[in-house]
């Protein structure tokens, strides 16, 4: 399973997940390798949105993900390491750059 967030994507092998939960309106996947006080990886799509409140999309997604990982319980995979990669999205990166440039220009103009 792959979770893609704005900055990073996380690739979870089936045997790498300790728990799937819903916290603060978002789906959370906690890998086996996480420290006990670590929060886990949040999947933020529709989390806390009006769509989620009306249709319970986060709870349904959590149930589906739990079922997916429960099928692998006790199974041995080749690796239980979660792979984290930087997400590169040229359009989003360009928009952030434009916002920083215009923010810097307006800061200089206002001085």
Q: Number of helix segments?
A: 3
How widely separated are the two ends?
49 Å
- Overall pLDDT confidence: 83
Gyration radius from CA atoms, angstroms: 18 Å
Task: Kindly estimate the percentage of residues that lie in beta strands according to DSSP.
Answer: 15-25%
Return the structural class: alpha+beta
Q: Regions with pLDDT < 50 over 5+ consecutive residues?
A: none
- Name the overall outline: elongated
Give the proportion of residues in helices: 25-40%
Major β-sheet annotation: 3 strands, antiparallel
N to C succession of SSEs: EEEEEHHEH
Q: Order of strands across the biggest sheet?
A: 1-2-6
By DSSP, the count of extended strands is 6
Outline:
The chain is built from 3 helices and 6 strands. The strands form 2 sheets. A 3-stranded antiparallel β-sheet has the order 1-2-6, with no helix packed on it. A 3-stranded antiparallel β-sheet has the order 3-4-5, with helices on one face. Helix content is 37%, strand content 24%.
